[in-house]
UniProtKB/TrEMBL annotation:
Belongs to the oxygen-dependent FAD-linked oxidoreductase family. It comes from Lottia gigantea (Giant owl limpet). Its cofactor is FAD. Keywords: FAD, Flavoprotein, Oxidoreductase, Signal. It comes from the Eukaryota. This is FAD-binding PCMH-type domain-containing protein.
Length: 530
């Protein structure tokens, strides 16, 4: 009798174990028939892993975060997006949204789920007579790249605040806040945002602005309200988590008088004299970071550095480039100011350049886009004027000494602040550290072979944790991938709490999920693959 009871208990345990390894009850299996009907219903094209174009289509700019979606959908219109959202919701399929694939931490791709590509949504509508913006407005669909938008508004003698790399789209960029080469003059991208149109998790078409929100449900019912919480969240609360944005409407601005000026000087960063790595670039970088504190808001710019070998002897490594952009044309006074700066930096340049551009588009159109193809781990810190910049430079030199030879280490330090700090922190979801920052320093360890992933990730996270101690906050769009305190670093807990409540209202089932996005740690259900 006892043996029979024990046998029955063993059978029950085995059944329980077997059941636990099967699909979750929440995970409906998408039948081949349902998947085919969905694909046939779309106006745009689709790709699955059997298609020859799939391999290239699934690649991310940062190859390290490339995943393998079960299906790639190229939406051709809002209807395709709505159908995709409803299909993913019905079958509990994880959904990722992609404009250009520039997310360095892989937020715009998905393993096994549906990758919704928006690159075919590329209409641009310029409206110079606007009651909302004295110099006009531009409505851009999310599939556009910034270079195309700059070129279009330039035809109307206008500028719009957007990214430095013209190959980047406006989807994730804008929702993360969006700093810009002209941001010190005109603010963040979200400071010029007038309206957003998007498809939300229940398939509704929503138009939202500071004036309120209009919801058109799938049954045709239209609801208007004064609630602008969603618009607040879309201005800095991060992309990929609120819905699928169809279009953004931005303020237009007048261009600078007589174009723009770019001043750059490049110096050797390191040389190796066994057993010591010297850095002639370090004191120059320290002087430059101190000097830019004195510049007015018409100046923006970058500091670029790396440790790439400069010759076959493995003696000279890396360059330091100090770049300034002036929102206005060339004058003799400007030239004298820049010559004084170069004398002050007191270094032997590899190259220096003073160049005048006729417009912002003339400058951006000649900027080399990011073509991707690398493997990297990025880390970021937002620095304020009272940060210890000398300490930051010393740390970066120390990182260059510690990183293995097969891994390249470098940074892009963007000069921010200026007009970006003029907007009260409460007006948008942008974190207080970002609002108060004068530098957004994004560093990386880069390499070519997947076998080095684990080592590079170890160094990247370690370096990122050391670097962020010098500032206040991390930029959502270019973050340290694995920081544990991401809510505090991106937004601060007060803003995060408000963002989470908005997330629960608009996407209670967490259809839209991405790495370290609002609510991403609260997932309770099993996502399915297609």
């Amino acid at each position: 009798m006892k043996s029979e009871v024990l046998l029955n208990l063993m059978i029950l345990v085995l059944v329980a174990i077997f059941s636990s390894t099967q699909s979750s009850p929440d995970c409906d299996i998408v039948s081949p028939t349902a998947l085919k009907e969905f694909r046939d219903s779309l106006s745009g094209s689709t790709l699955d892993p059997e298609d020859t174009a799939y391999k290239n289509a699934s690649l991310m700019q940062n190859r390290r975060v490339t995943k393998l979606p079960g299906l790639i959908v190229y939406a051709s219109d809002a209807s395709d997006i709505q159908k995709t959202v409803l299909f993913a919701s019905k079958h509990n399929v994880k959904l990722a949204i992609q404009s250009t694939g520039h997310s360095y931490v892989g937020r715009s791709t998905v393993e096994g789920g549906i990758l919704l590509n928006l690159s075919e949504l590329n209409r641009i509508d310029v409206k110079l007579n606007s009651v909302r913006s004295i110099h006009g407005e531009v409505t851009v669909e999310t599939g556009n790249m910034w270079a195309r938008v700059y070129e279009e508004v330039d035809k109307h003698d206008r500028v719009v605040v957007g990214g430095a790399d013209g190959s980047v789209g406006m989807g994730g960029y804008t929702q993360g806040g969006g700093h810009s080469p002209i941001g010190r003059s005109l603010g963040l991208a979200v400071d010029s945002l007038l309206e957003v149109k998007l498809i939300t998790a229940d398939g509704s078409t929503v138009t939202t602005s500071t004036s309120g929100t209009t919801i058109k449900h799938t049954n045709g019912t239209v609801i208007n309200s004064n609630d602008a919480d969603l618009f607040w969240a879309l201005r800095g609360g991060g992309g990929g988590t609120w819905g699928v944005v169809l279009s953004f409407t931005f303020k237009l601005h007048l261009p600078p008088n007589n174009g723009m000026v770019r001043v750059s000087a490049t110096y050797p960063m390191y040389y190796y004299e066994e057993p010591i790595l010297h850095s002639p670039g370090a004191p120059i970088m320290k002087k430059f970071t101190e000097y830019v504190k004195t510049l007015d808001n018409k100046w923006g710019g970058y500091i670029l550095l790396n440790n790439v070998p400069l010759d076959d002897t493995m003696t000279y490594f890396g360059t330091l480039s100090c770049v300034l952009l002036h929102f206005g044309g060339w004058t003799q006074e400007l030239q004298n100011q820049m010559e004084d700066l170069l004398d002050h930096l007191n270094g032997t340049t590899i190259h220096q350049d003073f160049k005048n551009y006729t417009s912002f588009w003339d400058y951006e159109g000649k900027t080399t886009p990011d073509k991707g193809g690398y493997r990297l781990y990025m880390y970021n810190v937002l620095l304020q004027n009272d940060s210890n910049f000398d300490g930051v430079v010393d740390l970066l030199v120390d990182h260059a000494k510690r990183v293995p030879l097969q891994i390249t280490q470098g940074c892009t330090d963007v000069l921010i602040g200026g007009a970006m700090t003029d907007i009260p922190s409460s007006e948008t979801a942008v974190g207080p550290g970002f609002r108060a920052a004068t530098h957004s320093m994004s560093c990386y360890v880069a390499y070519g072979n997947a076998k080095d992933d684990a080592e590079a990730e170890k160094y990247g996270l370690q370096f990122g944790n050391e670097l962020k101690k010098f500032g206040d906050g991390v930029y959502f769009n270019e973050p340290t991938e694995d920081i544990p305190d991401w809510k505090e670093e991106y937004w601060g807990m007060e803003k995060y709490s408000r963002l989470l409540e908005i997330k629960k209202k608009w996407d209670p089932e967490h259809l839209f999920w991405c790495h370290h996005c609002v609510g991403s740690d609260l997932i309770r259900k099993q996502y399915c693959s297609v």
